[in-house]
Design brief:
Number of strands: 0
Helix content: over 70%
Strand content: under 5%
Distance between the termini: 22 Å
Radius of gyration: 14 Å
Shape: elongated
Order of helices and strands: HHHHH
Structural class: mainly alpha
Number of domains: 1
Largest sheet: none
Number of helices: 5
Length: 107
């Protein structure tokens, strides 16, 4: 249940961040990145291709931070959340778990 909440919080935060920046009319360089981040947020919310989408979120948010340092606080937080989701995986309640089965790490 914890991974589901982390996925939902990260996805909703990315959607909120994208919507707020669309309302401020961002520069053309960050507009394409924000569109891709919004699409990746939808993938995270439903849990489809979670490790790939989360890694791309982390990379895009770091790139946005480098392009526009005024957005650095939210972008660094979202990059950290994306990186943690990429390492942890989608969890039991996701489309990935339905399609590919749950991954168990045994020791």
């Amino acid at each position: 249940m914890g991974l589901l909440l982390q996925r939902l919080v990260t996805g909703l935060a990315l959607l909120n961040h994208g919507i707020v920046l669309f309302q401020k009319a961002p520069a053309l360089a960050t507009l394409a990145l924000q569109c891709s981040t919004t699409a990746l947020a939808i993938l995270l919310i439903i849990g489809l291709w979670t490790p790939v989408a989360a890694a791309l979120v982390a990379a895009v948010e770091v790139w946005i931070t480098l392009l526009d340092p005024s957005l650095s606080t939210a972008s660094i937080l979202l990059a950290a959340l994306g990186a943690s989701l990429a390492m942890i995986g989608p969890g039991a309640y996701s489309v990935d778990a339905r399609l590919f089965g749950r991954k168990h790490i045994g020791m």
